[in-house]
Amino acid sequence: MAFSQRLFDAIVSGKPPLAQSIVEQELVSGADAMTLISETMIPAMDEVGELFREEEFFVPELMLAGRAMKAAMEPLRPLLAAAGAKPAGVVVAGTVKGDLHDIGKNLVVSMLEGSGFKVHDLGTDVTPQTFVEAIREHQPQILCLSALLTVTMTAMKTTIDAIKEAGLRRGIKVLVGGAPLNERYATEIGADGYGATATDAVALARRQVGLAN
Ligand code: B12
């Protein structure tokens, strides 16, 4: 089954334990992890965003839906990670300063791990300096930056500039993503690539390390 109305409703209405148990049941019935994410769970978050925009939902509902999405991701995470085999490269990832959204970033991290990348996830609200230090420490080939707010998109540029100033820009490919971004903005701020989905993140990362898709 491609679309699960029960799961969609459990996420939109912000019920974490219910959302998680529906995912577990769907998996037992043979549902595919990526199909559940792309055809039910992401559309549910889009619906929540729409209800927030229309002022039918407010921050508490947004938070509950976010928690339900995270709970629903729990049983899927090991399945996404199990999909890959040999280490493909090293990645540092994080949501930029001022931004607390991490559901999309976590999906990108899980998918990259599933494709064999070793990912150092710095979490949310990550300062440019913390990114710089993590690059020094982990020597990644790829940096993944995520932002969901128009006001925090600019922190991506600040981060890229800080990496340049630290003399670390040459050795690393910077990939950016998040709902308010597009290809043009990515080019403007000097990123190496933009991806609209976690699947794009994997394709871009594989390309950057010279692996065919
Ligand atoms: C859940 C949510 C929250 C939760 C976040 C919980 C969490 N742990 O993440 C909470 C309640 C904390 C929250 C808070 C706020 N939120 Co909010 N939130 C959302 C919501 C509903 C869903 C976001 C989400 O998880 N989407 C699902 C994931 C899977 O999608 P995604 O993040 O886009 O990621 C995908 C791609 O973008 C891509 N991707 C993501 N990162 C990367 C990185 C790379 C390198 C690549 C290649 C790809 C990639 O791959 C992902 C998977 O396919 C959106 C609406 C929406 N539909 O986007 C609003 C939304 C983003 N929030 C919004 C707002 C305004 C806020 C608040 C300011 C509200 C307030 N007044 O306090 C605060 C800001 C807090 C802060 N400082 O960050 C606005 C932003 C408007 C704008 N243009 O700036 C939105 C768009 C809602 C709206 N319609 O108005 N929010």
CATH architecture of the largest domain: 3-Layer(aba) Sandwich
Q: What would you call the shape?
A: globular
**Strand-residue fraction?**
5-15%
Structural class, by secondary structure, is alpha/beta
Number of domains: 2
What is the β-strand count? 5
The major pleated sheet works out as: 5 strands, parallel
Number of helical segments with 4 or more residues? 10
How are the strands ordered across the major sheet? Answer: 2-1-3-4-5
The CATH H-level homologous superfamily of the largest domain = Cobalamin-binding domain
Based on CA atoms alone, the radius of gyration comes out at 17 Å
Runs in which pLDDT lies below 50 for 5 or more consecutive residues are none
Features:
2 domains; Rossmann fold
Describe the structure.
The chain is α/β, with parallel strands linked by helices. The protein has two domains: 5-80, Orthogonal Bundle (Methyltransferase, Methionine Synthase (B12-binding Domains), Chain A, domain 1); 85-208, Rossmann fold. The protein has ten helices and five strands, in the order αααααβαβαβαβαβα. The chain has helices at residues 5-12, 16-28, 33-53, 59-73, 77-82, 103-114, 128-138, 150-165, 183-188, 198-208; strands at residues 89-95, 117-121, 142-146, 173-177, 193-195. A five-stranded parallel sheet has the order 2-1-3-4-5, with helices on both faces. Helix 9 links the parallel strand 4 and strand 5 (193-195). It is globular. The model has no long low-confidence stretch (mean pLDDT 91). Cobalamin is lined by residues 42, 45-46, 48-49, 52-53, 59, 62-63, 65-66, 98-105, 107-108, 144-146, 148-150, 175-180, 195, 197-198, 200-201.
